Amino acid sequence: MKPMKTLILHHDDCLKHDPGPRHAESPARVTAVLNGIRNIPDTELLPAPRATEAQLELAHAPDYWKRLLEMEPQRKDPQSRIALDADTYLSTGSIDATLRGSGAACFAVDQVFAGKAKNAFCATRPPGHHANTVTAMGFCLLNQVAVAARHAQKAHGAGRVAILDFDVHHGNGTQDIFEDSPDVLFISSHQMPLYPGTGYPEETGCGNILNLPLPPGAGSVEFRRTWSNNGLPALEKFGPDLVIISAGFDAHLSDPLGQLELDDEDYGWITSEICAYADANCGARVVSALEGGYDLDALSSASAAHVIALTG
Ligand SMILES: [Zn+2]
User: Fewest Cβ atoms nearer than 10 Å: which of 18, 87, 123, 246?
Assistant: First the structure.
């Protein structure tokens, strides 16, 4: 039997979402990621399919989705870009991009449950973890990890799903979506104070939310300590059938949007720890999706460290 590979899912539609010329969440981000991870052994690049409406509606209100569809500009000129909040935009092509993101995550879930891939990384944009059931926010339109978690439960009978989020920002949208769902564990490490202003340890949902805030200037030692002492033991106690990673690389030392000081090795470390858990306990099923990361060089090297760790 051939050793199973780490799937990389991408589609050029993800380059079509255009929040503006000076916006940090640029199409160049996925190009940087793909440049960083190309030629890593034991990976296989496949095209990301579009999510179906039925998949999106597992995590988003049908009215919200229809509103986005109706609002998408039909002309490719900068004046037609629609602001959904102070830093979240809808351009021509945004719908295709975000559909590929959620579609990639659902397809990745299908592949790992079918035993066709060891695990998977979705090199897609825009990010998703600030979007909740009915609101676009913080660069995010659809919450691909939330859609994928519900898809795993509905299509594959996953009883329990853990979503682990190491983006520098709190995944408030994911927390909102699952705060009353004991079958989904959400663990987030993030800088505090920082956008979006949530993610206090007191926010515990129905006992299924674990927030691990870190102060500005915290780096490798603090990050590894909180995951070793708090995050990973909670994952083990929960015992999921699938682990989904909200893989943001903006806690990197070089990132312009955060003040945490992680390096590439920290991303390799946390990924290896998560995979070691999954290898021993849930058939190695790990699906990772790109969230933030705004320094292109750091994004490239940190995502490479992440994918190398996924390949084992
Ligand atoms: Zn972020």
Answer: 87
Q: Tell me: the pLDDT tens digits for 218-250?
A: 999 999 999 999 999 999 999 999 999 999 999
- The CA 274 to ligand 1 mean position distance, Å, reads 20
Domains present along the chain, CATH in parentheses: 6-311 (3.40.800.20)
Conformation bin of residue 42: beta by default, left when phi > 0, alpha when psi is -120 to 50? left
Residue from 10, 11, 129, 130 carrying the catalytic annotation: 130
Structure tokens at 137: 């926010």
Tokens of 78: 């900068």
Distance 125 CA to ligand 1 centre (A): 12
pLDDT band at 75 (very low <50, low <70, confident <90, very high): confident
What does the pLDDT look like over 244-286, one tens digit per residue? 999 999 999 999 999 999 999 999 999 999 999 999 999 999 9
The rounded Å distance from CA 299 to ligand 1 centre is 12
State the pTM of this model. Answer: 0.98
The SS3 call for residue 261 is strand
Known active-site residue 23? no
Using DSSP, state whether 122 is helix, strand or coil: strand
